[in-house]
Specification:
200 residues, mainly alpha, 11 helices, globular
Length: 200
């Protein structure tokens, strides 16, 4: 899953949210240098990624893209699923998306000093361009895919996946909703387990 889903699935604890958000930039057992709640967020992120990558519905969405995008197809589905989360936001959260995201940006700024360097570099751009709210529109997702393609030096051609999004919009939306209900239940259970674990 991409940024918005990971943040949403973290619950209300600010440090768990931070841990989940920074997890891709924390390798191996280096997570142990963080506070207990940030550790929980990092471990939750890893559990979510494992659940997602092995899930039949996610694989079905990915298969639709694989011939054209190869191993980048999973990254594309992560981004597309964030679009459908943002698009269907009121189905999952009582707080409107703009307010929820603004609160998250405040959390980032309050914890800026403990963010890994790469995340510190990313954060001002995310806030200035309001990435998370932009996910709710196809134009916003198009810009994300174009940015990801640039990061791969145009090798991935991920920008073209806006075509598949338009062509299979209903199918992706239906798959997201079915998958996300399961992921939400799984994440809630994992968060309980991780929060109550013994000290490492």
């Amino acid at each position: 899953m991409n940024f918005l889903a990971h943040i949403y699935l973290s619950g209300r604890n600010e440090e768990v949210i931070i841990g989940n958000f920074i997890a891709d930039n924390v390798k191996g057992r280096s997570y142990l240098s963080f506070s207990r709640d940030i550790q929980t967020g990092i471990l939750l992120h890893r559990a979510i990624d494992s659940f997602t990558d092995s899930h039949a519905i996610f694989k079905k969405s990915k298969k639709r893209l694989f011939q054209r995008y190869g191993h980048y197809s999973g990254v594309i589905v992560d981004i597309l699923y964030d679009h459908f989360l943002a698009k269907n936001w009121s189905d999952y959260c009582d707080v409107d998306l703009e307010t929820y995201v603004a609160d998250f940006y405040d959390i980032l700024e309050r914890h800026f000093d403990i963010l890994p360097e790469a995340v510190q570099h990313l954060t001002p751009f995310m806030i200035a361009d309001n990435w998370l709210v932009s996910y709710s529109t196809t134009d916003g997702i198009k810009k994300v895919l174009e940015g990801m393609n640039r990061r791969t030096k145009n090798r991935s051609k991920m920008n073209n996946a806006i075509d598949e999004l338009a062509q299979f919009y209903r199918e992706f939306n239906r798959e997201f909703k079915e998958f996300f209900d399961e992921l939400k239940s799984y994440s809630e259970e994992q968060l309980k387990i991780l929060s109550s674990r013994d000290e490492l």
